[in-house]
Design a protein that fits this description.
Ribosomal Protein L25, Chain P; 7-stranded parallel beta sheet; 2 domains; EC 2.1.1.193; about 30% helix; elongated; about 25% strand; 12 strands; 7 helices; RsmE_MTase_dom; single chain; Alpha/beta knot
Amino acid sequence: MYVPRIYCNQLIKINTIIPLKKNTIHYCINVIRLQAGDLIHIFNNTNNIFISKILDINKNNIFIKIIKKKKENKESPTNIHLGQCYSKRMKFTIEKSVELGIKSITPIIINKPSIITKISKKICYWNKLIISACMQSQRNIIPKLNTPSTIYQWCNSIPQKSTKIIFNIDAKKNICDVSNKYNNIYILIGSEKGFNNNETKYTKEKKFLNVKLGPRILRTETASIVAIAALQVHLGDI
């Protein structure tokens, strides 16, 4: 039986009555067409869902009663962190990587004011997209959207005890060669043009593993999804 899921960013207690946020009213009434008496599942960035009942619903307010708490952990045992060079198809990359169980996403930028300004205007939208993808895929933990960084900043922020991967069609290793030594895996996906010599040299200095995703050249949004899916099959929960 399908039960709608709504994200509620607050502490939730059993047998309490709470209002839903104003920004969910349109979705509840006009998209999934909820009515008084309907059951919904509330999630709040914990490994729990809260089975709730709609008491009153109108164009101004929605009040629900929290009936029961149920533990539901759908997070991958492997924490995959994506460093994705900005592309025009970031919406697709973010949405699908969340569905596949990504832990965090960092937009990687070329250090140009025009790109930084463009990305800053999309952060709010991307965060909403992440929540929407969690609702669809029934994830209860919201993946973190990190502050946009340069490749150098992102590489320097990676904890020491982590596996770091960069993808190269000429690499000798593939996903099956990636060790499960560390639970955190950081993958760096380049732009359509790939990485320049300085960037490639820097990732080598930072001891990134060179891994290939097959013999074909993939578009940037395809590469990120293929890499995450392959890692989930190899080390995760697919």
